Amino acid sequence: MDKKLPNQIISNVRRAQKTIEETRKALSEQLKQQTAVLFKEFFAAHPAVKSIAWTQYTPYFNDGDPCTFRVGEVQLRFGAVPKAVPKVVTESDEVEEIDEEDVEDEDDDDDDGDDEGYCSWTLANAKDSRWIEEAHRPLITPELLEDFKWVTKIVESDPDSMEMIFGDHARVIATKNGITVEEYEHE
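^ thats the sequence. predicted structure below, dont judge the formating
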């Protein structure tokens, strides 16, 4: 066997690998730009929506099944609902206002107050009004549902593209000001 032949094959393979990597980077950038345009148009059409977010990651353990990258449910969030001052009736039938510091934050697990007063929902629960704050129900128009359906379909239907654009172990948050990617910790 001629010694030039393996070197030539190796060189051809490396050139092809480089071309694939360059193409992947260009496609990733193109996808990122198109995704940004999608969200910009969405937020322009639906200014009451504050953010759209989802998590995406490869689980560390999957009960014996292969651990494959996945995109979580896409969530839409409206802004905060005006908060009423909590009150309590005492034993003497007097109404007392409760200091806000004494009110337990029941909206999320970590009790940090981040989600307090916000309404967050997915397409799966959009038609069940129990999941939606009463103040936000009028904002859920057929147009919003249709547009959110398309956004959800684009995000959830191609995990490979989402991983290429935003990475693994990420929480992606889109707002009218752009897209933010945060590190996402999970079990």
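The chain has one domain: 4-183.
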